[in-house]
Amino acid sequence: MTISASLLRAARPALLGAVGLTAFGTLGAFAQEAAAEAAPEFAKAADTAFIFNTLLFLLGGFLVMWMAAGFAMLEAGLVRSKNVSMQLLKNIALYSIAGLMYWLVGYSLMYVDVNGYFGTLWPYAFDPVGLEGADTAALLETGYSTASDWFFQMVFVATAASIVSGSLAERIKLWPFLIFVVVLTGFIYPIAGSWQWGGGWLSQMGFSDFAGSTLVHSVGGWAALAGALLLGARKGKYGPGGVVNALPGSSMPLATLGTFILWLGWFGFNGASQLAMGTIGDAADISRIFANTNLAAAGGVVAALILAQILYKRVDITFVLNGALAGLVSITAEPLTPGPFAAIVIGAIGGVIVVLTVPLLDKFKIDDVVGAIPVHLLAGIWGTIAVPITNPGTSFGVQLVGIIAYGVFTFVAALVVWAILKATMGMRVSEEEEMTGLDLAEIGVEAYPEFTASTVR
């Protein structure tokens, strides 16, 4: 607890009275009275910190929750018209599944009695109503409402699942995808998260990932990569002789709206990861995080814009949109310590990564519909490696250990789950269903019913 100068001044009579008590017995009563008056001030300070810390989690949480709308709009814009309803359904379903699984097992696995590698396996209990009969002293020592912390952490796991949704769009069946989300949000992500944010073995080594470039974004990216490899590319995406056929998305306005919503939500993602707003220092740090987050996103946009013009002689808006997101992912590992110029450079390198690696994936015939793997996996790796550049308290070697550990665990676990789903119920729709579009084939509701099948690309 931080004690303000005014509280120290209020306590000073008690301290002076206690010292003089041996010489002046009459001052003893005064000392006790002053101490009694000062104690409520300390309690008020704890109450105030508790309120502001809880408020930070709640405000940050609903901003990150709004990122679910951003992912939905981004994906709806980048898939073809015949698959838009499917993407919207997947996004609202995965957010709901993430919330249920993270309450049922995920939060406890990630944070409760972590033994170095994982926590416990039971549903998480929130604060009692009105704190009646609760140990308020213990809650004040924690510094925030447990329900606010659960809510803030829950929306992060939904973000990881959204990354997988966009990458595997337009050819995956609904139910295998949703079953994978159950495993990802209930087990894979929480176990991996416990290693760092739960105080596990990586945290003890000194690994640093402020808001989740690796814990959230690379974990989602590795899961998406494993699925993309087993699922295969969309029909018509790759032709003979290395030909790559463009399959344009349905709506650049929706994709742009989604990007701006994600950009807005990222202020909660990074800012509330300060985890405290009860002091002047915390409030100043949150402000700095907001500024660096915005600068990094802008750097990613401008770098992608310029590099696309240089390499391709024209600017592809999807590169620019993903450049913004890559800049945001890159700064997420350490949004506090960089200065403004460093934040811009970190974000700009993320934008460069997108422009260079999207075509590289096509060379390997890895079909990533929305560019999630370059944006979240590769930019997430870059952001995590970059932490020691501006934060001397971290080690490049330890950062690499963390990146490798998360990569191996998530990729292998996801690959096993995807392989089981593929062998048992199948992952992919039929070629005819893919041609018709998943809106009709899987869920029977078209996003744009005025279009006929023959006019939808």
Short description:
The chain has 457 residues and is an all-alpha fold. It contains 17 helices and no strands. It has helices at 5-20, 27-78, 84-111, 136-142, 146-167, 174-194, 201-205, 213-231, 252-271, 280-312, 317-332, 340-363, 372-385, 387-390, 396-424, 431-436, 438-443.
Stretches with pLDDT under 50, minimum 5 residues:
1-39
Count of domains: 2
Task: Write down the secondary-structure element order.
Answer: HHHHHHHHHHHHHHHHH
Percent helix range: over 70%
- The pLDDT mean sits at 88
Per CATH, the class of the largest domain reads Mainly Alpha
Proportion of residues in β-strands: under 5%
How many beta-strand runs? 0
Q: Output the CATH homologous superfamily of the largest domain.
A: Ammonium transporter AmtB like domains
Distance between the termini: 60 Å
Report Rg. 25 Å
Number of helices: 17
- State the CATH topology of the largest domain: Ammonium transporter fold
Provide the CATH architecture of the largest domain: Orthogonal Bundle
Largest sheet: none
Shape: globular
